[in-house]
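Fold it.
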Amino acid sequence: MRIGAYEVQAFSDGIFRLDGGSMFGVVPKPLWEKVKPADPLNRVAMDMTCLLIRDRARHVVVVETGAGPKLTDKQKRNFGIEDPPALLDELAKRGVHPDDVTLVINTHLHFDHAGGNTYRDDERVVATFPRASYAVQRLEWQDALAANERTRGSYLPDDYAPLEAAGKLELLDGDGELLPGVFVEQVRGHTRGTQTVRIKAADQTLWFSSDFLPDRHHLPLPWIPAFDLFPLETLEAKRTLLARAVAERWTVAFTHDVPRFGRIEQAEGRYRFEELAAQ
C-alpha cells in the first residue's frame, strides 16, 4: 500500500496465544467465542503484526518487532508459540537487511511487541537493527523499568534495557511527528505510554492501532481486554477515535489481527471492519 511518499507493508512475526477471558475482559465467553474460538487451554490465537514503512529517501521504518528469539522453551509453551520468529525472514523477503533499518517504533514494550528489538550474541544481548534508533514513549520506558506485580509478566528487560546502554533509545514525550507525515500519538488505556502510529498524506491516512484496539473483534465499545490498566480511558478513546476513523475514512491495521488493511464502517450503531483488496 502506498501512502504519499511511503510504501507500507504489513506482515506477521507469528502466532501467539493468550487466555480468551483476559483478552475480552467483561464480555462473557459465549459471546467472544463466536468470533474467536478458544483452544483446550482457553487461549485464543493472535498474530503479531508488524509494519514496514519505506520511502525513496532511504528511510526504512519497522513498527513492532514481535516476540523475538529470546524466549525460553517454557515461555514459548505458555504462550503457544510453535514457530520461530518470522520478523527477519519477512524483512528479507522484502529486500530489507537489519543494517538497512533506520527507525524502530515500539507502540509499547510488552514482549509480543518488542521481543525482536534485540537478540543474544553469545553472552551479550545486542540490538537487532544496529543503525536504527528505537522510539518509545518515555512513560512506557519508565513503567517498563519499574514493572510491578501486575505488569511484570509482560515486560522482559532484555527486550529494551540494552538499547539505552547502546545509545539507541529515542524517548518521546507525547504526540509527535517522527518523519514527514509519520506520527505517533499517545493513547492511555492499555498502558500509560501506549502509542498508535498514523501515516498521513493529503487525504490519505493509515492508522496502526496498537493494543489500544488489538483486533477487529474489539471494535464494540465495551469489548476491552482485562490486560488494559486503564479500561475506562480505553473506552473513552475508542468513542473518539473510532468515530474519527469512520468519518475520515482511515485505512486501518491492527496489531493482533491477520496482517490486513481495511476500513472501519458503522451501521445501525455497530462498527465493523471491511478488508481492502490486496494492494
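The mean pLDDT is 96.
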